[in-house]
Amino acid sequence: MIKIEHVSFSYAKGYAALKDVSFTAEPGEGILLCGESGCGKTTVTKLINGLIPAFTEGCALTGKVTADGLTVAKTPLYELAKRIGSVFQNPKSQFFNLDSDSELAFGLENEGMAPAEIQSRIKETVLSLRIQNLLGRDIFSMSGGEKQTLAFASVYAMRPRIFVLDEPSANLDSGAMERLHDQIALLKAGGHTILIAEHRLAFLMDLIDRAVYMKDGQIQNIFTVGEFRALTEQQRIQMGLRTLLPVEVELPAAREAGNRQGLSVEDLTCAFGKKSPVIGKLSFSAVPGEVLAVTGPNGVGKTTLTRCLCGLLNEKAGTVRLNGKPLRAKERQRAAFCVMQDVNHQLFSDSVWNECGMSDSGAAPEQIEAVLAQLQLLSFRENHPMALSGGQKQRLAVATAMLSHKKMLIFDEPTSGLDYARMLSVARVVRDLAKQGHIVLVVSHDHEFLQCACDRVLTLV
Amino acid sequence: MKQIQKDRYLDPRMGALLLVLANVAAFSQKSFAVELSWIIYLTLLTTLYGCWIMALKWLTAFAAVLLIQWYVLPASPMVIATSFSIFANYARRMFPCLIVGMLMVKRTPLRNLIVGMRMLHIPQKLIIAISVTLRYFPAIREELGYIRDAMKLRNIHGAEKVECLAVPMIVSAAGTAEELSAAAVTRGIENPVRKTSAVQLRLGAVDALALTAGIAFTAAAFVIK
């Protein structure tokens, strides 16, 4: 079904992304591609859906890839599209229409299918994936999980034989991950061949037949699912893989409101316009030195809470106190900072050093140097922020907050799409900040991360 | 949850024609009666398509411009009167076009617009460019929201703001463009076969009536001086 023979590949920049990769996927087989970030997982998925070589300029490819009887390199992408369906990582950038119905029809319309048949295909897709709730919707009003489901459904409607999924869970909460699990199970039951590159592994354990472990562009090992599950914790950690077992967050509940030290939220209510409140009468507190996890399903108001605590949104009722003193929204903007999920939104300058210099506190050079050194960014001081890695960008955002003497730091989904080592390093940053006396909140769906980075948990319902 | 109403879509071809007619009429008519009846007709049409609040807003705005032109400007000092009378005059003439344009934005889904363009044999490459551009506007609005939040937390104000918008916007646009095209080609957008559409556009009786009236008004604009 899928056959990769002695493939070596390098991108235009020259470094070898894949070195002599070979493996076969039988029809109906579920194959996991795993390994640290940059190990070549995504590159392998592109070999199969044809984005390599057709969509990648100036690359060097040797070896042969066949999928569903087609030689990928010699088949036009639109022919491959009929047999190989691709779902990508970012739910935001996978749709072309503004409404969900059009999106479901998109692939079929491209194939030139008769309108009546398109309608019946869509009907069938909606039934089998149970997505009636997604019909007739404005896509920009949908949650990330819903968007990802829609992307999946619109590929499913094309009925490809092979599915290639590139980190489909990177931006999903646990509810949406369960849905993704069920969708993949449906593919499996339907006899589709599935290739899935992922960091979060636990939810896939009953769906895969084999796991391909890659390192530095090479296949290190191919495990049967039995062998893979039998890996000891130590081996798993050594391989740099995320947990294979589901993790429950078992942390003590958030402290009650009324603490004189740190953040105390009392009967906080947030609402948009005259609509019913998103957050109603919420009370808790967070003290310096502890990391507080904030979890809950999508749409429960985590983002609203974050924006309100940072003073970007006015509360309808209730009080937010810092060290006993009630703060208005404007004052909270000075006292709090949010490291956004997409940290690209908050870096503005042309070098790491200038980014820090922008802080309104007018920090002295020695101070900037000290903060950068502490966050392991000093050697990058002349680099452009956009040339940094994801983790470095996060730390740079943290640096700007520290230089503005912000007391409260909120991290919004800081580990989406991160491998084990990178997750640990975020956990370390979070812990260090708390130790230095910051009030740290972490909004996340990533249970494994929350369990190792946080001290207490606030579960919104 | 925003539901898109199934009925009362403005056919894109009809919208485009109305737009042309409104343009021609607006800049050739010289009679107030014709102008006023155009405006009333278009606001009625807007109401027919279910946007009566919008219709009301347009009428109010039009009345406001008239008031300014007839009562406020004559009573104002010379400098203001001369510098704003041209502006008011042209603003008034723009009204029909603005109303039709707004109606199209509200009542022609992107998908119908694409089908309409295909039926008019507009080249596929142009259609893709237009549709991706239109899809990108709401995305930009979303991005701007995040960036504005980020700037508030960094205490960035005034002229610096504009400069600071550029970097994140460009970075995100570049990323989106690449991801979007990868998703597009893996769903067969390059397929050379004639693309079909799950929705069919049919010009109904209402459309025909509306169009006839539009043509009549345009003709009147030339005849009645």
TrEMBL record, chain A:
It is a peripheral membrane protein. It comes from the Bacteria. InterPro entries: AAA+_ATPase, ABC_transporter-like_ATP-bd, ABC_transporter-like_CS, ABC_transpr_CbiO/EcfA_su, ECF_ABC_transporter_ATP-bd, P-loop_NTPase. Residues 2-241, 263-461 form the ABC transporter domain. SMART domains: AAA (SM00382). GO terms for cellular component: ATP-binding cassette (ABC) transporter complex. Keywords: ATP-binding, Cell membrane, Membrane, Nucleotide-binding, Repeat, Translocase, Transport. Its main location: membrane. GO terms for molecular function: ATP binding; ATP hydrolysis activity; ATPase-coupled transmembrane transporter activity. PROSITE patterns: ABC_TRANSPORTER_1, ABC_TRANSPORTER_2. It is found in: Cell membrane. Probably part of an ABC transporter complex. Responsible for energy coupling to the transport system. Belongs to the ABC transporter superfamily. This is Energy-coupling factor ABC transporter ATP-binding protein. It comes from Lientehia hominis.
Automatic annotation (TrEMBL), chain B:
Its main location: membrane. It is a multi-pass membrane protein. Keywords: Cell membrane, Membrane, Transmembrane, Transmembrane helix. The keyword Cell membrane applies. The chain crosses the membrane at residues 36-55, 62-87, 203-224. GO terms for cellular component: plasma membrane. It is found in: Membrane. CDD domains: EcfT (cd16914). PANTHER family: SLL0384 PROTEIN (PTHR34857:SF2). This is Energy-coupling factor transporter transmembrane protein EcfT. It comes from Lientehia hominis.
